């Protein structure tokens, strides 16, 4: 019986730095090796300069995302990224539920219908000839977020400059940018004053501005929503180019779910243990996790777990005819802390996919590149097809019925 964190399986270490070098340079390979070595128990150790464990079982995911008194956000990875260090993201129980309830109104399904037309109108045109789906998705996400949050009134150049560092690998997103943040906060105050004075707006800023801490919630949720939307949209377009039989509005929901299973933008989530925890693994072992341990969960590993998903590494939208395994599909987290912008992300991505013509893939690098979010290395170059290949709709139905 395991009785110590030191006895958990772990990937190979490097002399002098444990797993820090691999965590910085090739984190996906690192956690995949850890998952391989701990397949039966679903929990492995990382040596990152402080006690750290990664779990990917359904039981671990459920506990971490629902036991908010044991697994705390304070001290998690989000605190080291200025863009995400604040607001409801870092608010712990018991204050989390009332604060989340306060900001939820604008992000619910009902309010999304209010935003749908302006989000659709903000989409950029499809370029002629060859074009990079990743670059187009970036532009589309910027425009749609500006429309949803600010009715398109935020300075586009400033918005681009604010969000640009998030597209780079670490440590770029973690570097302080006080002057840039001051300019963004000034623009937020200007637009908020306009809405508070008029009193009749219905964009997201109009709903958040009157709330205590509403401008911080606006800035943090805006940052959290950009790269996540960009990358999911780009991957969806790339897969539709390779599998045009799925390119129809009635299939786009399943396509998006499958993209988010394979490439969850939030590929790793983190908490800190507020107390000692005795954890029983699925293989019947037990381990004592000390207070202060960095507790990690990985939607990337859970979404590709061959014990939970048939042909887990393949793009198979037809699998979404059935419900996913419990606590295995977590691109937006889960429980009380489920992503605030989940409905907005679905709205933006699905609206964007309906505007795409039939596509043909030309060349690109879709290798997942982890940073603050998981994105394709890019570019993803496609071009418009003249018409759908014949018989594609029948093939989709045949494949679905045979799942």
UniProtKB/TrEMBL annotation:
Keywords from the UniProt entry: Heme, Iron, Metal-binding, Monooxygenase, Oxidoreductase
CDD domains: cytochrome_P450
Any one Pfam family match given in the protein's UniProt record, by short name: p450
Entry-linked Gene3D superfamilies: Cytochrome P450 (1.10.630.10)
InterPro entries listed in its UniProt record: Cyt_P450, Cyt_P450_CS, Cyt_P450_E_grp-I, Cyt_P450_sf, Cytochrome_P450_monoxygenase
Cofactor dependency: heme
Membership in a protein family: Belongs to the cytochrome P450 family.
Name used for this protein in its record: Cytochrome P450
